[in-house]
Specification:
Layout: E1 7-12, H1 21-29, E2 34-39, H2 54-59, E3 64-67, H3 81-89, E4 93-96, H4 106-115, E5 119-121, E6 140-146, H5 153-166, E7 170-174, H6 178-184, H7 198-205, E8 213-217, H8 229-239, E9 243-249, H9 266-277, E10 285-292, H10 298-312, E11 316-317, H11 325-333
Parallel strand pairs: 1-2, 1-3, 3-4, 4-5, 6-8, 6-9, 7-8, 9-10, 10-11
Helix pairs in contact: 1-6, 3-4, 5-11, 7-8
Length: 339
């Protein structure tokens, strides 16, 4: 899946800023891909981009109209349809990360065909896949993993890519979730892949590359989450990571959405992730720990990070609060120097 850029970001009529996290993520990480935003009358959220109609956005070079918000149930409300059809008739492709498929709406399929544009169901579309092979690939890879879901794996991956580029490393974010795909413009939604093919999907998303090229692969789930461990394991095997960055939230009391399931200790999680990664890359190592410390005072957070650094002998930092320069520099020291 390769989604034409730049985008017009559709914010609908949401009132909760968190509901616009897809649009916000695109704007935060790829502002150069955002021509403007479009919202309906009751919308209370803005990214402070120019308000444009689909026709105006197309005239300014936009290629795709992105449904940049999420709602309960992941469906497309009927009152959004005029904005979507206006975008199609203006010559824009449509991209959605919602559960309901654009391609399941006959009106949109017929209109898109008439105007020769594409409908991208980011959560559902994927290439023809093979099972994982475990065959060694060229290039260098770092995969973000986690003690739990929602501990910052996508944010850490994007922030790490940015810091590595500052060090003149040839780094590329590889998206495995719908928001990441819209940010990158390409990728594969591994949570929608049949389990037998997850490792193959990870091989597909991070193919052979130049020896000094770094793929920064967006992780999903956690090996210790009873609901999502399968996706995490498939990514570990298919990514063949040279390095892992462990993501964690300081003080989280239990596994997300499972109050009866205690959160795993960081040490145990690192150990199992390295053991699993070494099935396809015997040389996999830990490069750093990215911790969400936002619920703690700075002094307490810094003490916690210092203790992790000392214990594991790798940089531990908060990607939002303190940045990922230390982990990027660690990886740079282990990068293959360009000739």
């Amino acid at each position: 899946m390769k989604i034409p850029q730049p985008y017009l970001l559709f914010l609908g009529d949401v009132s909760d800023p968190l509901a616009a996290k897809t649009a916000r993520g695109i704007h935060a990480w790829r502002p150069e891909t955002c021509v403007g935003e479009m919202s309906l009358a009751d919308c209370e959220v803005s990214l402070d981009l120019p308000q444009l109609t689909p026709e105006e956005a197309a005239q300014q070079g936009a290629k795709t109209f992105v449904l940049g918000t999420a709602n309960a149930g992941g469906y497309i409300p009927k009152h959004w349809m005029k904005a979507i059809t206006d975008a199609i008739t203006s010559g824009l492709n449509i991209a959605s990360g919602l559960h309901q498929k654009l391609t399941d709406i006959p009106e949109l399929v017929a209109l898109a065909e008439e105007h020769q544009v594409s409908l991208f169901d980011v959560r559902h579309q994927q290439p023809e896949l093979s099972v994982g092979s475990g065959v060694k690939r060229t290039g260098q890879r770092v995969l973000t993993v986690g003690t739990d879901c929602s501990v910052g794996k996508m944010y850490t991956s994007l922030a790490l890519e940015a810091e590595m580029k500052k060090l003149n490393l040839d780094a590329q974010f590889r998206a495995t979730g719908q928001t990441g795909i819209l940010i990158a413009g390409e990728g594969i939604p591994v949570d929608a892949v049949i389990s037998d093919f997850i490792a193959g999907a990870a091989e597909w998303v991070s193919p052979d590359n130049k020896a000094d090229h770094w793929d920064v692969i967006e992780g999903q789930g956690s090996l210790f989450h009873p609901s999502y461990a399968g996706v995490s394991l498939g990514l570990l095997h298919g990514s063949q990571p040279d390095w892992l960055v462990m993501c964690h939230e300081m003080g989280r009391p239990h596994t997300r959405h499972l109050a009866h399931h205690p959160l795993v200790e960081v040490e145990e999680c690192i150990s199992l992730n390295l053991y699993s990664a070494r099935v396809t890359n015997p040389n996999a190592q830990l490069a750093g720990i990215s911790v969400n410390t936002s619920n703690y005072p700075e002094a307490e957070a810094l003490a916690y990070l210092a203790a992790l650094t000392e214990k594991f002998n790798v940089p531990a930092t908060d990607s939002v609060r303190f940045g990922l320069q230390s982990i990027a520099e660690f990886l740079s020291k282990h990068s293959i120097t360009k000739e």
